Amino acid sequence: FKHLLPVANKTLLAYPLEKLILSHFSNFIFLCNSDNKFEIERYVENKFCWSKKKHVKVSYFIPTRYCSVIEAISELFEKSLLRDDFMMINGDLLTSCNLNQMMDQHYVSESLITMAFNENSASRQVLLKEESDDCLLGLVTSDELKLRGLQVRKAILDRHENIELKSGLEFSGVTIFSKSVAPLFKTLGQHFVNFLDEAFPFMCNYQYNEKILRQLAYNATRLKTHVF
After folding, report:
1. Is 183 within 8 Å of 134 (Cβ atoms)?
2. Cα gap 216→130, rounded to integer Å
3. Residue 130, Cβ neighbours under 10 Å: how many?
4. 171 with 196: CB under 8 angstroms?
5. Closest CA to 73 of 179, 224, 207, 215
6. Nearest CA to 88 among 52, 61, 50?
7. Helices in the chain by DSSP H: which ranges?
8. Residue 41 and residue 31: Cα distance in Å, rounded?
9. DSSP category for residue 51
């Protein structure tokens, strides 16, 4: 219930919702559990009066069982509640991120996943990216670097001449997903719980794995979606 705690005369949930509304988003899915679904629905409907706005679509989703966010997103796709590219944002997020600019970048770069990071000197995140087209090659922590150093397969380095390493980054809680990654969520949900710390680094490390790409392309063809 921390999303409904007051901060500066507003609930935590009000901050990302107001930012999304100002950014002209109109289709919202609240991922809830059986304990907080009623309170969140009552708060949202009373505070924002969305039921009276015909151009806004709001739904509240409770997974069939307790599961990770990855599995919940997979279930949303299976139930056809998610059909297009979507933005995932934490319900207790306080950020100055320009959501419209982030969406524009996502579509201009034709990315499968777009994530927002904050610069923070105390952060443990280390981002390895390709400078030429912002292709993300890896995401590790400073502890991992101390243990084994920065290790990148030579095959990746051979393919990418311009590689940039950034440190002092912290995930801001905003992610945009292409609908093309939908087939992967079901598989990822069987092996990983945390998207940022487990599933996302796995996707970066194996983005050139031909077997995974073939499976992604095959599933996308079945779903009649475009992969790359």
Report:
1. no
2. 23
3. 16
4. yes
5. 179
6. 61
7. 14-22, 37-48, 69-78, 99-108, 142-148, 154-159, 182-189, 200-205, 210-222
8. 11
9. G
Cβ atoms of 101 and 23 within 8 Å: the answer is no
CB contact at 8 A, 30 and 41: yes
Judge residue 189's burial from the number of C-beta atoms within 10 Å of its C-beta, 0-12 exposed, 13-18 middle, 19 or more buried. buried
Alpha carbons 150 and 46: distance in angstroms, whole number:
51
Q: How many helices (H) and strands (E) does the chain have?
A: 9, 9
Distances from the Cα of 15 to the Cα of 27, 96, 203, angstroms:
17, 10, 31
**DSSP structural state of residue 87:** E
pLDDT tens track of the chain, all 228 residues? 678 888 888 888 888 888 888 888 888 999 888 778 888 888 888 887 665 666 788 888 888 777 778 888 888 888 888 888 899 998 888 888 899 999 998 888 888 888 888 877 777 677 777 666 666 767 776 666 666 655 666 666 666 667 777 777 788 889 998 888 877 777 777 778 888 778 877 777 776 666 666 665 555 454 433 333
Nearest to 18 by CA among 106, 91, 82, 88: 91
Residues 6+ apart with CB under 8 A from 213: none
pTM, entire model = 0.77
